Amino acid sequence: VKRVRTRHFQNAKRDGIKITGLTSYDQLTARIFDEAGVDFLLVGDSAGNNVLGYDTTLPVTVDELIPLTRAVAGAVSRAFVIADMPFGSYESGAEEALHTAVRFMKETGAHAVKLEGGVRSHKQIRRIVQSGIPVMGHIGFTPQSEHGLGGHLIQGRGEAVAQLLADAKAVQAAGAFAVVLEMVPSDAARQVTEALDIPTISVGAGPHCDGQLLVWTDWAGLTTGRIPKFVKQYADLAGVLSTAAQEWRDDVANGVYPGPEHSYE
Ligand code: KIV
Ligand code: NA
C-alpha cells in the first residue's frame, strides 16, 4: 500500500474526499487503525489523560510522548503519523519549536508534528516548515491553554469568528499542511474551510470540515466518565473488557480456567 503523505491531504480537499484520523498511543491500536484504512494517526498529548492518568494535558512532556510516538510510527504501513508537541515545548520561540520538532522526527519516525495556536504560533510553524518538517495547526479550543481560555469553551461563536479566521489564515500562511478546528460551531468551521486552501480537520467542528478526527478512547467507549457531545461512540470497549474481567475472575474462582486444553502434559 502507498503511504499517505501531505499531498494526500491537499488532493482530498480538492477532490472532496473526507480525511479520517484517530489518536493512537500504542502499537496495537496503531496497527488496527492503519489496516482499517484510517488516513492519519495523531499521537496526541491527550495521552496525558488517556495513558498517563493526568487530569489535563499540561504536565505531558516530550520525553513521555517520544516512546508512544515511536510505537505508533513503527506499527503503520500506510497511515500518516503526527506527533503532538506538548505544552512547554514550543511557546518560547521558533528555535525551541524547531528543536522539539527535530527531536520527534529523529527519535520516533513520525511524519509530521502538530502544535496549538494560530496567530500566536505562526513563527514557530514557519520555522519548522522551513526545515522540511510538515506541521498540522490546531486552533479553536486549544486544551493546552484551557486556563487562559477560561475552561472547555466553544470557540469562534458570534464575533469571535473573525479571530478564528485570522488564526486559520496565519496557520496557512506559515506553511501548515492542514489545521485542526476543535469545538467550533459548524457554521464558523464552514467559513474557515471555504476561506482556506489547506484542509480543515474537525474535532467537534461539524460536518463541513475536510476531515474528522476523534480521540480513540472516547470513540471506542473505553473512556469511562463524561465524553464530549461531538463524540459518536462506535464500540463499548469498557463494557467488553469489564465483562471479560468478571468472567475470568469467576472462571478462576470456580476452577473452570485453566482447563486441560490450556495446560501442558
Ligand atoms: O491530543 C489530542 O488528542 C488532540 C486532538 C484532540 C486534536 O490534540
Ligand atoms: Na493535543
TrEMBL record:
Pfam family, one: Pantoate_transf
Binding positions (Mg(2+)): D45, D84, E116
Keyword Methyltransferase found: no
Single annotated GO MF: 3-methyl-2-oxobutanoate hydroxymethyltransferase activity
Binding site for 3-methyl-2-oxobutanoate: D45, S46, D84, K114
Complex formation: Homodecamer; pentamer of dimers.
Record protein name field: 3-methyl-2-oxobutanoate hydroxymethyltransferase
Lineage, top ranks: Bacteria, Bacillati, Actinomycetota, Actinomycetes, Micrococcales
